[in-house]
Structure formats: C-alpha cells, structure tokens
Amino acid sequence: MKLIDDLAGAIYDVLSWVLWGFSYFAAGVIIVGAPLYLISFLFEWLS
C-alpha cells in the first residue's frame, strides 16, 4: 500500500506543477498578449 500511496503522491505533485505552470503561462498571455494584439489591431486600423 505504501508504494501505491507514494506513486499517487508523485502523480499529484507532477500534475500540480503542470497546472501551476500552465496557469502562469495563461496569465502571461492574458496580461501581455492581449494588449499587444489590441495595440497592433489599432495601428492596423489607423494605417
């Protein structure tokens, strides 16, 4: 039972880190990418 418990804990840790990293990536895309896209759309509309 200890092996299964350790394996489940390891899988939980890996998935937790993956979700943590993806959330930071998504936040960066929203904070940086969305305004840059809107600025480029504005410049395209002006020219």
Structural write-up:
It is built from one helix and no strands. It has one helix spanning 2-46. The N and C termini lie far apart (67 Å). The mean pLDDT is 93.
Keywords for this structure?
47 residues; mainly alpha
Rg calculated over all Cα atoms: 20 Å
Total count of helical runs of at least 4 residues? 1
Number of strands: 0
Termini separation: 67 Å
Structural class: mainly alpha
Report the sheet-strand fraction.
under 5%
C-alpha geometry: rod-shaped
Q: How helix-rich are the residues, as a percent range?
A: over 70%
List the helices and strands and how they pair.
Blueprint lengths: L1 H45 L1
Short characterization:
This protein is mostly helical. It has one helix spanning 2-46.
